[in-house]
Amino acid sequence: RREPLALVNLKKKHEETGEEELASRLDHCKAKATRHIFLIRHSQYHLDGRADKDRTLTPLGREQAELTGHRLASLGLKFDQIIHSSMTRATETTEIISKHLPGVKKISTDLLREGAPIEPDPPVSHWKPEAVQYYEDGARIEAAFRNFIHRADAKQEEDSYEIFVCHANVIRYIVCRALQFPPEGWLRLSLNNGSITHLVIRPNGRVALRTLGDTGFMPPDKITRT
């Protein structure tokens, strides 16, 4: 509901100058800026951790995060914020990346935690979570999409550059939803650890995918997909 018409109360239209007034109000509600969304998958972590707090980054994972942070800094963009999943591996990845982007505020959220967004189609044999997970995680991840992936607010004057550090399932689902592809196909996409996915959201709400899972800035021996 960010289309200008959805933001105007049509019942308040003046009877005589209705069309002019409506055009003016619609113009006031139109977005002017472009949002650049950088979705970062967390780095490699210890898979054998029993609880989330034990699933910390591996030494290689820390190297990957350094490389990702260096790459983001080298783009020369003025990043507005880093929003990250509250899970340990995403938080640690964020801390390392943020060293390369001093002054950029960090915000933690449970919405971006890893989960099962929607039952994949076609199904796969190696990953079959309980059906209840799709209902619990799916609603949360869809809420994350609606909360974070949208056109700029009409009050935003300049283009923005935002970083989201989270997880493969979340990023793949968001990409499918943002591009209006069937979200059930999310599992057909593959993302490396520490990879960069770049979405562009124009003022009219249209979304373009600039890069998907880019790790071309990492040496081949540093690339993993755990």
Automatic annotation (TrEMBL):
Keyword tRNA-binding listed: no
Entry keyword annotation includes Lipid biosynthesis: no
UniProt keyword terms in alphabetical order: Hydrolase, Membrane, Mitochondrion, Mitochondrion outer membrane, Necrosis
GO cellular component: mitochondrial outer membrane
GO biological process: positive regulation of mitochondrial fission; programmed cell death
GO molecular function list: protein serine/threonine phosphatase activity
Family: Belongs to the phosphoglycerate mutase family. BPG-dependent PGAM subfamily.
Protein name (record): Serine/threonine-protein phosphatase PGAM5, mitochondrial
